[in-house]
Structure formats: structure tokens, C-alpha cells
From TrEMBL:
The keyword Signal applies. SUPFAM superfamilies: Lysozyme-like (SSF53955). The keyword Glycoprotein does not apply. Pfam families: SLT_2. Residues 1-29 form the signal peptide. It comes from Dyella agri. Residues 38-322 form the Transglycosylase SLT domain. The lineage of its organism: Bacteria, Pseudomonadati, Pseudomonadota, Gammaproteobacteria, Lysobacterales. This is Lytic murein transglycosylase B. Keywords: Signal.
């Protein structure tokens, strides 16, 4: 036997021994529960480096303020308290000024997408006060906190986090670790969640990027495209007050219009103005400052609830849009 045969055999065992040691070692704990599984999914679907993804998520922090904020949404208030938050003289006046300053862009986008421009303005007015309040939380912190540490809605926010990690750089206003937004991880003037950025945001200014923070054409067109893709009907009704008689049939509101208007009239609800009797509608009753407020809601109201499912949110957008348009007409007439 050659004298160096035994040492060669010992050396040949080293790689196997190393594998056994690694296999028997406990796995490193996730910084956030479920992080490793998410990283594997994103790496598999995009080819991104798992180490880089882990490094990004490792720096995201659990924020108690985010958990506190999601537990007290404004939509928990009655309409009598919710409406004054958004229908203020300041918000209406600034909306009128914004519309008049950017009229050419707004009306061009409105025509392109078939969406009334005042509703585009009202969305950014309700969401971020025309871009002034876009959120102070790091988007990664928000989505990690809610996706990994908030069981009631963890699946939804985990999906949003996954989408964020998979978005191309051209769809983001900056590096992932610098993005800021709402406590729910919504970004930009229109407060788009990652899935909405992926599916509905547009590069309106043609610069090769979708920037919902710094590009006004991208911001406004993305809101318009969201409405258009959800079925907005150009020129269609949104909502109208209803007058119930003493024997009106009690109805439960459905977001999607359920019956022709004439059916609701037969059940004891009359419109304040003449409307198409065949228009599909639902009946929404809000708790107003003066008592119950019954409203007919139509397809375009339903579209607004695709942006935010609260009927009070949709009504605030509708009434703000109307007030802005009234103010624009008044200002135009005064010139």
C-alpha cells in the first residue's frame, strides 16, 4: 500500500463531514416569522438573490404605532363624524385651486380614460390632501409589521409585501428601503398598494418610470386608470338622495347595484330629481347629523368602493368632487 493512501482517504471524507455538520446545525431564526418562506417564493418567482432579500427584510422593524393605527380606522366613525374630516372649506378650496391650476392636464387625462376629472382630484384630496400628507412610515416596516405580525389580515399584507419585493425598479419612486407611505403601506398621492401599482399604475409622462410621488401625470393618470379598469361609466350617475315614504321597505345596502331604480321607487324610495328608471342602483342609509340619510348609489359609486370598500369613503369622495366642481364653475363665472 502506498504510504500516502491513508491521508488521501481521510482528506476525501472532509466534504462529507462538512455537509453533515451543516445539515445537523439548527437553522438561523427568521428576523420576522415566515420571512424565509417569503424570501424563497420571491427568489423562485423573480430570480432575485435570497441573501439580498433577507438583508432588506432584516432591517425592517416591527412598529407598534402601525398596529395601533390599523386598530382605529376613521371608517369606524358614523357618517356624521366622518364627513367633517374631509368636507372642510380648506379641502374644498384647495381642490378648486388644484383643479384650476392643472386643468389642462386633468381634463386631458379625464378624456383619455373616460373619468370625470373632479373625481380624480377628490381621490387625492381625500387620500393625501393633494399630496401634502403621503405618510411617514417606511413601506417595508408597514408591510412587514402587518404581513408577519398582524394575524387578522396577515395574508393580505403578506401578499402586498411579496408584490412590493417583486416590482421592477421602474415601478417605484426610489429604492425599496427608502419608500415611505401610510401605516398600511400605501404609497404616493393616490395611496396605491403594491398590487395596485403593479396592475393599474401608468407611466403617463413617458419617462420609462412610474413615479406616484413626483410625477403629476403619472399620479393623476394612475387614479383615472384604476377607475376605468374597474368599470367607471363616463357621464354616469354616482349617488343621489332618496326620499322614503312612511311605508318604505327596509333594505340592506349592497356595494354593487342590485335593482333598477323603479323597483326602489315601488318599495317607497323616491329620487329628488328625475332619473333613468332603469338605472341599476342600491339603497345606502348613512347616519347623518340630522338623522338617517338614504341615498341611491350607482355603478360609479361601486367603482369608488373598489378603491376603498367603505361606503362613507366613497360618499366623501363623491361629495368632495361635487363641491370642487361647483367651486370651479363659480370661480370661472367670477372672472
Amino acid at each position: 500500500m502506498p504510504v500516502n493512501a491513508a491521508p488521501r482517504r481521510i482528506r476525501s471524507l472532509f466534504p462529507l463531514a462538512l455537509l453533515l455538520i451543516v445539515a445537523s446545525s439548527p437553522a438561523l431564526a427568521d428576523t420576522h416569522p415566515g420571512q424565509s418562506a417569503l424570501v424563497q417564493e420571491v427568489a423562485r418567482d423573480t430570480g432575485k438573490d435570497p441573501a439580498a432579500l433577507n438583508a432588506l427584510l432584516d432591517q425592517a422593524k416591527l412598529q407598534q404605532g402601525i398596529l395601533d393605527a390599523i386598530s382605529r380606522p376613521a371608517e369606524a366613525k358614523p357618517w356624521s363624524a366622518y364627513r367633517p374630516i374631509f368636507l372642510t372649506d380648506k379641502r374644498i378650496g384647495d381642490g378648486v385651486a388644484f383643479y384650476r391650476e392643472h386643468r389642462a392636464l386633468l381634463e386631458s387625462i379625464g378624456k383619455q380614460y373616460g373619468v370625470a376629472p373632479q373625481y380624480i382630484v377628490a381621490i387625492i384630496g381625500v387620500e393625501t390632501f393633494y399630496g401634502r400628507i403621503t405618510g411617514k412610515y417606511k413601506v417595508l416596516d408597514a408591510l412587514v409589521t402587518l404581513g408577519f405580525h398582524y394575524p387578522p389580515r396577515a395574508p393580505y399584507f403578506r401578499q402586498q409585501l411579496k408584490t412590493l419585493l417583486e416590482l421592477p425598479e421602474s415601478h417605484l419612486a426610489g429604492p425599496l428601503d427608502t419608500l415611505t407611505g401610510s401605516y398600511a403601506g400605501a404609497q404616493g398621492w393616490g395611496q396605491f398598494m403594491p398590487d395596485s401599482i403593479r396592475d393599474f399604475a401608468v407611466d403617463q409622462d413617458g419617462d420609462g418610470r412610474i413615479d406616484l410621488v413626483n410625477s403629476l401625470p403619472d399620479i393623476l393618470a394612475s387614479v383615472a386608470n384604476y377607475f376605468a379598469k374597474h368599470g367607471w361609466v363616463d357621464g354616469g350617475p354616482v349617488a343621489a338622495r332618496a326620499q322614503p315614504d312612511g311605508a318604505a321597505k327596509p333594505l340592506t345596502w349592497q356595494a354593487q347595484p342590485q335593482w333598477p331604480l323603479e323597483q326602489l321607487e315601488a318599495w317607497g324610495y323616491a329620487p329628488f330629481q328625475h332619473m333613468n328608471p332603469g338605472e341599476p342602483t342600491s339603497l345606502l342609509t348613512l347616519a347623518g347629523a340630522g338623522g338617517p340619510e338614504p341615498w341611491f348609489t350607482f355603478n360609479n359609486f361601486y367603482v369608488i368602493t373598489r378603491y376603498n370598500r367603505s361606503p362613507m369613503y366613497a360618499m366623501a369622495v363623491h361629495q368632495l368632487a361635487q363641491a370642487i366642481m361647483d367651486g370651479v364653475h363659480s370661480a370661472d363665472s367670477a372672472q
